[in-house]
């Protein structure tokens, strides 16, 4: 089996020191950790490579359009005070026409350089907390309530951030606990040496706006919430019963929550029908 080789880096990053480190790769984009201005200032680099099977003019138009849409959503949210990564730079390069263009690092595409967010994704935090709870079933009632209070508070803060997102007229498009991070406000987030109970303190930050768009439709906002609710149901079964806490935080942050939550009921009903039909 041949080792995967990512597309060439955009020209501004081909000779940086240290070189960018590939973190994740998807069908549409690659995420790297790199530096900005100084070798000690980390930054996140998202690259949307060109699609060689597309006509170069169409490819350039679509790639440019998508990276600009993501950047506009992020810029708007930063202006509105929503916790998202700040944009540092962006650009796009035309797709090379010859094989030598690819070999020399001119494969084209678009890139977005963003603020680096330290911390853990919420998915990992909740998985560690649920694992810790499962291993400590003998805890007293008071301790159990204290643990549940911590996770309720985290969900309330997530609701506040999602409410701010929708208040700004932006929908995420892929709202899951993998696209939420906890950025430590003091000491770095950590768990006990035995891999135990994680900290839930920190600022909730929304990430990965590759599918985001600007919308003021209740339907779009309700679908955002439904996707997040389903993520809790499938990935965090012990935390799912507290999802109403997230919706309460959403109500507190967004005045238009009532109509969106009413539409959420309709979206849930359609989701159940699809599940029954298969």
From TrEMBL:
Gene3D superfamilies: Phosphorylase Kinase, domain 1 (3.30.200.20), Transferase(Phosphotransferase) domain 1 (1.10.510.10). Its EC number is 2.7.11.1. Component of the EKC/KEOPS complex that is required for the formation of a threonylcarbamoyl group on adenosine at position 37 (t(6)A37) in tRNAs that read codons beginning with adenine. The complex is probably involved in the transfer of the threonylcarbamoyl moiety of threonylcarbamoyl-AMP (TC-AMP) to the N6 group of A37. BUD32 has ATPase activity in the context of the EKC/KEOPS complex and likely plays a supporting role to the catalytic subunit KAE1. The EKC/KEOPS complex also promotes both telomere uncapping and telomere elongation. GO terms for cellular component: chromosome, telomeric region; cytosol; EKC/KEOPS complex; nucleus. GO terms for molecular function: ATP binding; hydrolase activity; protein serine/threonine kinase activity. It is found in: Chromosome, Telomere; Cytoplasm; Nucleus. Its main location: nucleus. The lineage of its organism: Eukaryota, Fungi, Dikarya, Ascomycota, Pezizomycotina. SUPFAM superfamilies: Protein kinase-like (PK-like) (SSF56112). Component of the EKC/KEOPS complex composed of at least BUD32, CGI121, GON7, KAE1 and PCC1; the whole complex dimerizes. Belongs to the protein kinase superfamily. BUD32 family. Keywords: Activator, ATP-binding, Chromosome, Cytoplasm, Hydrolase, Kinase, Nucleotide-binding, Nucleus, Phosphoprotein, Serine/threonine-protein kinase, Telomere, Transcription, Transcription regulation, Transferase, tRNA processing. It holds the Pfam family Kdo. One of its GO terms (biological process) is tRNA threonylcarbamoyladenosine metabolic process. It catalyses: L-threonyl-[protein] + ATP = O-phospho-L-threonyl-[protein] + ADP + H(+); L-seryl-[protein] + ATP = O-phospho-L-seryl-[protein] + ADP + H(+). Residues 17-278 form the Protein kinase domain. It is an enzyme of class 2 (transferase). This is EKC/KEOPS complex subunit BUD32. PANTHER family: EKC_KEOPS COMPLEX SUBUNIT TP53RK, NON-SPECIFIC SERINE/THREONINE PROTEIN KINASE.
């Amino acid at each position: 089996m041949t080792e995967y080789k990512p597309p060439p880096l955009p020209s501004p990053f081909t000779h940086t020191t240290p070189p960018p480190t590939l973190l994740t790769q998807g069908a549409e984009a690659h995420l790297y950790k790199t530096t900005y201005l100084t070798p000690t200032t980390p930054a996140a680099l998202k690259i949307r490579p060109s699609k060689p099977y597309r006509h170069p003019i169409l490819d350039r138009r679509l790639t440019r359009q998508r990276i600009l849409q993501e950047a506009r959503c992020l810029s708007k949210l930063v202006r509105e005070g929503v916790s998202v990564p700040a944009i540092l730079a962006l650009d796009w390069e035309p797709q090379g026409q010859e094989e030598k263009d690819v070999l020399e690092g001119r494969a084209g595409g678009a890139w977005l350089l963003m603020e680096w967010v330290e911390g853990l994704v919420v998915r990992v935090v909740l998985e560690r907390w649920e694992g810790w709870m499962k291993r400590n079933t003998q805890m007293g009632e008071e301790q159990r309530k204290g643990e549940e209070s911590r996770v309720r508070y985290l969900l309330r803060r997530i609701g506040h951030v999602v409410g701010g997102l929708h208040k700004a007229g932006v929908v995420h498009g892929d709202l899951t606990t993998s696209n939420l991070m906890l950025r430590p406000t003091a000491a770095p987030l950590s768990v006990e040496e035995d891999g135990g109970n994680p900290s839930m303190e920190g600022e909730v930050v929304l990430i990965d706006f590759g599918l985001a768009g600007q919308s003021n439709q209740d339907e779009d906002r309700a679908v955002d919430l439904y996707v997040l609710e389903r993520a809790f149901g499938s990935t965090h079964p012990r935390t799912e019963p507290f999802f109403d806490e997230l919706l309460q935080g959403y109500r507190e942050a967004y005045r238009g929550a009532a109509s969106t939550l009413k539409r959420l009921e309709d979206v849930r009903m359609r989701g159940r029908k699809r599940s029954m039909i298969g």
